[in-house]
Amino acid sequence: MHIIIHTDGGSRGNPGPAASAFIVHSFKNEVLHEESKYLGVTTNNIAEYSALRMAMDWVKNSYQELEISKIEILMDSELVVKQMRGEYKIKDVNLQAIAQDIKRIQLELQLDVSFIHVRRAENAHADLLVNECLDAQKKF
User: Fold this and answer.
1) In this structure, are residues 6 and 125 in contact, taking their beta carbons and an 8 Å threshold?
2) What are the average pLDDT values for consecutive 10-residue runs of the chain, which has 140 residues?
3) Could you tell me the pTM of the whole model?
4) CB 3.0 to 4.6 Å from 51: which of 7, 24, 103, 132, for a disulfide?
5) Please, what sign has the CA dihedral across residues 81, 83, 84, 87?
């Protein structure tokens, strides 16, 4: 199965209260899963990478059942997309660790994964989930 995953992460302040979210669609645009998570106080980049790791953890737990073979991951973070493609180096050790986890899952499952940069408007559902998660904390 070919799936499409939209991921997003955000913080209110940098660092600040942060959340991550992802949505999984079939190639026929059916929503298969969506999830968000409050992260506490952290940076925007950690939130973006955490969303990607959450999505890959979901893939790891679902790939056999759904027979996933190809994944397109769409993100509005050009930096993360270019880092995951190997176009930019990842200098932060915390981000390196998350990226290594993501790549390990990709290799372990032998998945064809593409990282694609999209405009923020094309990632509106994931962005909405992030903001709903942050709003639910009622701490701001």
Assistant:
1) yes
2) 97 96 95 98 98 98 93 98 97 97 95 96 97 85
3) 0.95
4) 7
5) positive
